[in-house]
Amino acid sequence: MKEVNVGICGLGTVGGGTFNVLERNAKLITGRTGINIRVARVATRTPRTDINLGDIPFSTDVFDVVNDASIDVVVELIGGYDTARELVLAAIENGKHVVTANKALIAVHGNEIFEAAAKKNVIVSYEAGVAGGIPVIKAVREGMAANRVDWIAGIINGTGNYILTEMRAGREFAEVLKEAQDLGYAEADPTFDVEGIDAAHKLTILASAGFGVPLQFEKAYTEGISEITPYDIAHAEVLGYRIKHLGIARRREGGIELRVHPTLVPRSHLIAQVDGVLNAVLVDGDAVGQTMYYGPGAGDEATASAVIADIIDAARAVASSSNQRVPYLGFEPEAMENLPVLPMEDIQSAYYLRITAMDHPGVLAKIASVLSEHGINIESIMQKESEFKDGRIPVIILTHTVQERQMNRAIEELEALSDIDGRVVRIRAENFEG
Ligand code: HSE
């Protein structure tokens, strides 16, 4: 039987899960592939006493894996940018296939990494980096290869979704974040989860694989969930919406939208039912229409499931003589389009606005007049009996789709009115059409 040697770099949450599932399901994987996939070396800076490596060679220097001539596939699970980049580039240079779960690495250094890999004719795959265990990269690059992908939208950070779900049940933000960290869902720096950076890494990769454009993480717009209040969560529900932290990428004339922010989604839509650490990605293709991929977005063995699927693809490439490969981002380099990321002012969205107004006659008319002057159409308006008991009253408005530029101007004018107290709270809304 053919044998393929795998070297695992990093034995944290995902590394440990990958090792355990490879061991447990070894027979099943061999049955599916006809290949004996052997873990031939493991390297990690922090050894684990709960994992029995048996006689597998072990070191604390991850570069030992890359420099081991017997290793065919390097699995990068150390995370971070700099050492991971060096490690992956060194593995490629040594002619090894690479599997990584590192979305930050691919989103930021992917263009450079794929160029180096193409020169050496090696695979670099990253399924586990996007939406954990959900095989959405395979779906977009292969399953939807017949389609022009028009937009992608998803809940792609499990920690953030877990926090919003628990806040809806009345729990405190900080307490739930701590719990998500203890459960191993959060990034080493949890601001990556909470501020949308992790989701923007994943969205950048999805957009490139969907649209065939270079990775442009630095242009992505990110807005976190730390300012979301239980008040807005409750009022969105009254209006028939739920607040989710979405990544949205949309193909537009002359560019793409690439944005992560809290978003009102209709409660009747399937994505509104995606709770806890679960992720879901909607992908709209011109032939197939709207598709949705749903499942665990984080966790040791769930993520290992995706890592191992990539290891199996690489092992098949090692074991076969064919050079026919799925391109790194699903498109041949000459077919990639240089579509820029559009400035945030050019995106189009519906909006939820919460305005704190002084409770006296004519104030609603003034608000409506500012919105109308900027061509903003109101879908619904709700004026709550004052909960502040001090002459101020919350006015909640849901608008039709409008350009962000118009909304920015309108909010500036609203905030300048003497009848308005403080800042206008604005949350974008999405109906998943066009
Ligand atoms: N911190 C990430 C999340 C892990 O919560 O989604 C999976 O990428």
From TrEMBL:
What's its EC?
A: 1.1.1.3
One GO molecular function term of this record is: homoserine dehydrogenase activity
- EC primary class: oxidoreductase
Q: List UniProt keywords, sorted A-Z.
A: Amino-acid biosynthesis, Methionine biosynthesis, NADP, Oxidoreductase, Threonine biosynthesis
- Where NADPH binds, per the record, is at K103
Give residues annotated as binding NADP(+).
Answer: C9, G10, L11, G12, T13, V14, G15, G16
Which Gene3D superfamilies would you find in this protein's record?
Answer: 3.30.70.260, Dihydrodipicolinate Reductase, domain 2, NAD(P)-binding Rossmann-like Domain
For this entry, list what GO says about its biological process: methionine biosynthetic process; threonine biosynthetic process
Residues bound to L-homoserine: E187
Entry's transmembrane regions = none
Q: Does the keyword Amino-acid biosynthesis apply?
A: yes
UniProt cross-references to Pfam families, sorted A to Z: ACT (PF01842), Homoserine_dh (PF00742), NAD_binding_3 (PF03447)
Q: Where is the ACT domain?
A: 352-429
The record places the active site at K202 (proton donor)
Catalytic activity entry: L-homoserine + NAD(+) = L-aspartate 4-semialdehyde + NADH + H(+)
What does the record give as its pathway?
Amino-acid biosynthesis; L-methionine biosynthesis via de novo pathway; L-homoserine from L-aspartate: step 3/3; Amino-acid biosynthesis; L-threonine biosynthesis; L-threonine from L-aspartate: step 3/5
Instruction: Indicate yes or no for the key word Cytoplasm.
Output: no
Protein family (similarity comment): Belongs to the homoserine dehydrogenase family.
Which protein is depicted?
Answer: Homoserine dehydrogenase
